[in-house]
């Protein structure tokens, strides 16, 4: 059999071509699935509402209208009344009713005599008369709604320097409860044997009224040293108070370190002698030997000053001297002055 391709039969030619080339098979066509495509398109459909409503359609308000029929007494006949709207209540109606009720209640409380301040209960006062405090507040007859406790507290502290703190509470319908705390006198200041004022532990001064439990009496020839930054209210221009301005509370007047110095020296001085204050030499007392001794206005090195003072006294007595004044204000520069 000849190998010439032309002499081969068609079947042999096909077999020979398969051996040389790979068979390239075409994929079998599948039917198109229209259901998945329709579902995908349906998910992308955007609904559009046309504002145009054809004649004969009914709105929600029309559907909510209630039909009312009345019998006429004749069988088979009725009278149809005009349609009534159906009202749906919600929580907004309740909120509006509550708000309106609160406004009406507030108006009635502001203008009713039942909510006017009628009673002021004052507790905690010992030396300050309660009638004086009540007269200063001047809130009787005012609406209790308008009373501001913070403003009343500030007014009490500004009017009475001998009151340390005040607490005001409102009790409905017409009561005001006031609790005050008075300052405790620690020092009684006398100038030329005249009682001027009391001084408390913190350095606040206030007028002498009533009685106090054993304050330290200081006999001075001038006023005590003032606190740093203190401004005398009498030397400043007093502005007329306005309704919006808050009353100013009492300000610190005496240096607290000076108060501590008085208490410290009072604990070491002889019990039978009085505390003295001199504007030049400070605090001191009259010694049992007849002279005056001063230690300044500070308690720095007070123990060393007392020890040094005892040695100076021994030296003076040994020399049979009689000074009129011994100054221990400066630890390293003490001195004494003899009679002329």
Brief summary of the model shown:
With 340 residues, the protein is α/β, with parallel strands linked by helices. The protein folds into two domains: 93-182, Ubiquitin-like (UB roll) (Roll); 184-340, Rossmann fold. It contains eight helices and 14 strands.
Description:
The protein has 2 domains: 93-182, Ubiquitin-like (UB roll) (Roll); 184-340, Rossmann fold (3-Layer(aba) Sandwich). Helix content is 28%, strand content 21%. The chain has helices at 10-20, 34-43, 60-64, 91-111, 130-137, 149-159, 256-268, 302-318, and strands at 69-71, 78-80, 119-123, 163-171, 175-182, 185-191, 194-200, 205-206, 216-220, 275-278, 282-286, 292-294, 323-327, 335-338. It has a 9-stranded mixed sheet, covered by helices on one side. It has a 3-stranded mixed sheet with strand order 3-5-4, with helices on one face.
Features:
alpha/beta; flat; Ubiquitin-like (UB roll); 28% helix; 340 residues; Rossmann fold; three-stranded mixed β-sheet; 2 domains
The residue fraction in helices comes out at 25-40%
Q: Give the CATH level 1 class of the largest domain.
A: Alpha Beta
H and E string: HHHEEHEHHEEEEEEHEEEHEE
Radius of gyration using CA atoms only:
51 Å
Biggest beta sheet attributes: 9 strands, mixed
* SS elements, strand count: 14
How large is the share of residues in beta strands? Answer: 15-25%
Record the strand order, biggest sheet: 8-7-6-9-10-11-12-13-14
Q: Give the mean pLDDT.
A: 80
Which class do the helix and strand fractions yield? alpha/beta
* CATH topology call of the largest domain: Rossmann fold
Number of structural domains: 2
| Low-confidence segments | none
CATH architecture of the largest domain, by name, is 3-Layer(aba) Sandwich
Shape: flat
How many helices does DSSP assign?
8
């Amino acid at each position: 059999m000849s190998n010439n391709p032309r002499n081969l039969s068609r079947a042999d030619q096909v077999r020979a071509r398969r051996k040389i080339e790979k068979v390239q098979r075409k994929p079998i066509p599948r039917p198109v699935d229209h259901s998945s495509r329709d579902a995908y398109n349906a998910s992308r459909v955007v609904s559009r509402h046309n504002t145009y409503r054809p004649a004969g359609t009914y709105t929600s308000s029309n559907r909510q209208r209630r039909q009312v029929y009345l019998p006429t007494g004749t069988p088979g006949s009725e009278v149809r009344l005009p349609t009534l709207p159906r009202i749906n209540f919600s929580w907004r109606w309740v909120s509006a009713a509550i708000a309106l009720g609160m406004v009406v209640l507030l108006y009635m409380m502001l203008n009713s005599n039942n909510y006017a301040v009628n009673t002021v209960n004052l507790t905690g006062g010992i030396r300050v008369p309660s009638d004086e405090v009540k007269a200063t507040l001047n809130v009787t007859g005012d609406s209790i709604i308008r009373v501001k406790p913070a403003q009343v507290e500030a007014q009490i502290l500004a009017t009475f320097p001998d009151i340390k703190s005040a607490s005001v509470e409102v009790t409905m319908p017409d009561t005001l409860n006031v609790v005050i705390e008075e300052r405790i006198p620690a020092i009684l200041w006398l100038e030329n044997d005249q009682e001027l004022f009391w001084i408390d532990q913190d350095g606040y001064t206030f007028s002498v009224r009533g009685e106090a439990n054993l304050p330290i009496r200081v006999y001075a020839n001038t006023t005590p040293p003032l606190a740093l930054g203190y401004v005398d209210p009498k030397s400043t221009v007093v502005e007329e108070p306005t309704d919006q301005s808050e009353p100013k509370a009492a300000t610190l007047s005496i240096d607290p370190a000076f108060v501590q110095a008085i208490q410290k020296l009072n604990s070491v001085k002889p019990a039978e002698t009085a505390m003295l204050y001199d504007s030049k030499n400070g605090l001191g007392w009259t010694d049992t030997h007849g002279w005056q001794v001063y230690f300044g206005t500070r308690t720095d090195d007070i123990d060393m000053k007392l020890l040094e003072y005892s040695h100076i006294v021994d030296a003076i007595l040994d020399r049979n001297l009689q000074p009129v004044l011994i100054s221990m204000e400066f630890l390293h520069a003490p001195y004494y002055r003899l009679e002329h």
